Amino acid sequence: MRRMIVAAVLAAGALVPAASAAPPAAAPAPLPPDAAAALVAGPGVAGSSVTRSVSPQEAFAAASLPGEAVSVAPGLSLQQATGLSAAFVACSANEQHWSWGTWPYEQKLSDTTYWCAVYGDHITYTASTPGAAGTLCGPSWTSNAIISGGIGYSWFVERTSAGWTCPTVIPWVSLHPSHHLDVSRNAWGSTEVVGSG
Fold first, then answer.
1. Most buried residue, 45, 51, 81, 143, by most Cβ within 10 Å?
2. Residue 193 confidence (pLDDT) above 70
């Protein structure tokens, strides 16, 4: 009796289509230029931000990530700047997200930065990677640069920027927004967004 019930349940399960068998949702279609421009121009909003302490090994490994912009204090090796061979260094990591526009024309910008410092005194190492994404708006370029403070200071402000190409229903008409995010980080491991646009 027990085997028949199990067999009946298994047979019934075979008749129910799997969730992965559902057809994929269609990609959104581009809109006329005026409608697309209105969605592209939506205001900027903060996304998630996570700051955490990291080991010297993780900070050191971040220097070899693809696209990583790395700065090391003069006179220090990468091992010293990240604390692998200097006990006085503390390291942090922060992932900051911001977005502009309205779906499906949103433009998402991210900045992932690792930094180490003689705690509470001065920055010894930074490693940053910019990122950009969107549904219809595809990134065309990204960049990042320290615009204030930096190695040897107790803080640094990093500007992460990106540009997107956003199609419309007219194949030869695309919109090209660009945005930036300015994030301040310090020798105590704190992070704050200080500008965006």
1. 81
2. yes
Residue 21, pLDDT score: 53
Asked if 139 contacts 133 with a C-beta cutoff of 8 angstroms, the reply is yes
> Amino acid letter at 156?
F
- The CA distance from 12 to 193, in Å, is 55
User: Residue 11 has what pLDDT?
Assistant: 42
| Alpha-carbon span 192 to 13, nearest angstrom | 52
**Residue 172: other Cβ atoms inside 10 A:** 6
pLDDT in tens, 155-166: 999 999 999 999
Question: What is the SS3 string spanning the chain?
Answer: CHHHHHHHHHHHHHHCCCHHHCCCCCCCCCCCHHHHHHHHCCCCEEEEEEEEEECHHHHHHHCCCCCCEEEECCCCCHHHHCCCCCCCEEEEEEEEEEEECCCCCCEEEEEEEEEEEECCCEEEEEEEEEEEECCCCEEEEEEEEEEEECECCCEEEEEEEEEEEEECCCCCCEECCEEEEEEEEECCCCEEEEEEC
Residue-range domain boundaries for the chain:
28-196
